[in-house]
Design brief:
single chain, 238 residues, alpha/beta, 10 helices, globular, binds 2-phosphoglycolic acid
Length: 238
Amino acid sequence: MQKTIIVANWKMNPQTLEEAKDLFDFAEKEAQKNKDFEIIVCPPFPYISALKSSDAKMGAQDVFYEEKGAYTGEVSISMLRDVNCRYVIVGHSERRKHFGEIDETINRKIKVVIGAGLKTILCIGETQTERGENKINEVLKKQLENDLKDISDNSELIIAYEPIWAIGTGVACSIPEAKEAYLFIRTMIKSAPILYGGSVNSKNAAGYAKESGFQGLLLGGASLDKKELLNIIENIKQ
Ligand code: PGA
């Protein structure tokens, strides 16, 4: 049976290693207790090798597409694999917006992740303006086509549908709207799990995970709050 996937994207949080350890231990315990869930924690790079993952899986928030060399500030896929990362988020809208990430670089990154035998969590989603102009499917189609260009093997792929206007805003996408996007993505991506992300909390989580058809959730803010994380898992289980 397909496990419900929960990705905890910590972004640039928490501020100390001690807090990171505490939060990670909590995720580990939840993963141990809930074998029907695949819990993937994506901490900032400096914490990754200090956190011991067994039941919860380790993920990175980004990777560079070159293997080594003069690329100040970057991290390669073999470095991530060496510290037991099994998943990599690629194309998060915050990277697209603040760091000039474009479909072409995203495509190169996905290829190195696949080449190294790790799993990609590819984030796609439309802006508020694009939604207003009824361009949701057009945008999702273009992102999927460009980001996955020349990639035929989707077996190690997870897609996260994240409407950009819903990320970190507290304005979540309605369940029927999310379902529409899910069904559209499913016409293009036949078998990979599709997650929902964007202002998920313990009140709306079960709606996305059960009613909209998604195979799991990508959590930002809620993943830093132990009580919310616990309640999200409990509410999906019910
Ligand atoms: P959020 O972030 O849950 O805080 O809205 C989601 C995300 O990182 O995509």
